[in-house]
UniProtKB/TrEMBL annotation:
This is GDSL esterase/lipase. The keyword Hydrolase applies. Keywords: Glycoprotein, Hydrolase, Signal. SUPFAM superfamilies: SGNH hydrolase. It comes from Acacia crassicarpa (northern wattle). InterPro entries: GDSL, SGNH_hydro_sf, SGNH_plant_lipase-like. One of its GO terms (molecular function) is hydrolase activity, acting on ester bonds. Belongs to the 'GDSL' lipolytic enzyme family.
């Protein structure tokens, strides 16, 4: 059965414009200012990249229009037809856990929004009656929909790491994050979701943000690609725990297709062999200088911040997010490679889609 719509939940790695509606006026957030969007759209869209994201490439592979943001729906800018084609609930800065979790632990000022995963799920439930009017009609729509649950959870760790909370403390957050994601998946399945793709975390030790924050004089802290070993091990630990939970959920819901998307290993080759892909390495394309061209107090989109001439030569766009070129390669790995488990995208009837075949 070909998928006709996408429903997405997540953070800035998946947000296709909710940030634009939240940030009023939009230019208050740096992702809503030039040069964001310059490569594909020609202007900022609220996407934290120079162009399209993984969700955009997945939509194109399904011959589905790029998925519109939920807050555009509530502003009356999206037609009923677009609703049927899917809606994106992801918000830049979102966490899997509610803001109260961090406030209870004395973590303030580093969580970008309170539009957490539970809030996004609430939006979906509010929108559902306008998509379908009965259990049978909802079942018919949702079983033909692809649900992207993430990437979400990265900001639950990014904020505390930015405050230099201890590794041991942040590791204790992992079960809570995974429980929040697991609970959302169960709720979506109960509502009628049939196929859910759940991404893990990227190799964060290769991020210009983390490389700048935790720059070390000890060579042993880095791998051959120049990435911070201990941060990548943390991402691997989180991903292993997430996969184990998804396996348990699959046993509980044998009628659903719960797919782990291995963002970590899909992205890793770009860092390990950048020249093979036409990339220059670990520096950000757009940033405020420094070894990795990242400066938290002088971010991309800020006044006087320089942007590279050719984003296609860079993996990292702004220190935190990827360039469109990197996202496209990662999406291709996911769609055409062996970086999803236990099912491949091609096994889910996408191979019958001409756009998928040509991607």
């Amino acid at each position: 059965m070909p998928y006709t719509s996408i429903f997405s939940f997540g953070d800035s790695l998946a947000d296709t414009g909710n940030l634009f509606f939240i940030s009023q006026p939009p230019h208050l957030h740096h992702c809503c200012r030039p040069p964001y969007g310059e490569t594909y759209f020609g202007h900022p869209t609220g996407r934290c990249s120079d162009g399209r994201l993984i969700i955009d490439f997945i939509a194109e592979s399904l011959s589905i229009p790029l998925v519109k943001p939920y807050l555009g729906v509530t502003n009356g800018q999206i037609s009923n037809r677009t609703k049927e084609e899917g809606v994106n609930f992801a918000v830049a800065g979102a966490t899997a856990l509610d803001l109260s979790f961090f406030e209870e632990r004395g973590i303030y000022g580093v969580i970008g929004t309170n539009d957490s995963l539970s809030v996004q799920l609430g939006w979906f439930k509010e929108l559902l009656p306008s998509i379908c009017s009965s259990y049978s009609s909802c079942k018919e729509v949702l079983e033909k929909s692809l649900f992207l649950v993430g990437e979400i959870g990265g900001n639950d760790f990014n904020g505390p790491f930015a405050l230099r909370r201890s590794f041991a403390e942040i590791k204790t957050y992992v079960p809570h994050v995974i429980d929040a994601i697991s609970s959302t998946i169960s709720d979506l399945i109960d509502l009628g979701a049939q196929t859910l793709v759940v991404p893990g975390n990227f190799p964060i030790g290769c991020s210009a943000f983390y490389l700048t924050l935790y720059e070390s004089k000890h060579k042993n802290d880095y791998d051959e690609a120049g990435c911070l070993v201990w941060l990548n091990r943390f991402a691997e630990y989180y991903n292993q725990r997430l996969q184990a939970e998804l396996n348990q959920l699959q046993e509980l819901h044998p009628h659903a297709n719960i797919i782990y998307a291995d963002y970590y290993n899909a992205a890793l080759p770009l860092y390990q062999s950048p020249k093979k892909f036409g990339f220059m390495g670990l520096k950000a394309c757009c940033g405020g200088g420094g070894v990795y061209n990242y400066n938290a107090s002088n971010a991309c989109g800020g006044e006087g911040v320089n942007c590279c001439d050719d984003p296609a030569k860079y993996i990292n766009w702004d220190g935190v997010h990827f360039t469109e070129s990197a996202y496209k390669l990662i999406a291709r790995y996911l769609l055409k490679g062996s970086y999803t488990a236990p099912y491949k995208f091609g096994d889910l009837c996408l191979k019958n889609n001409k756009a998928y075949e040509s991607f």
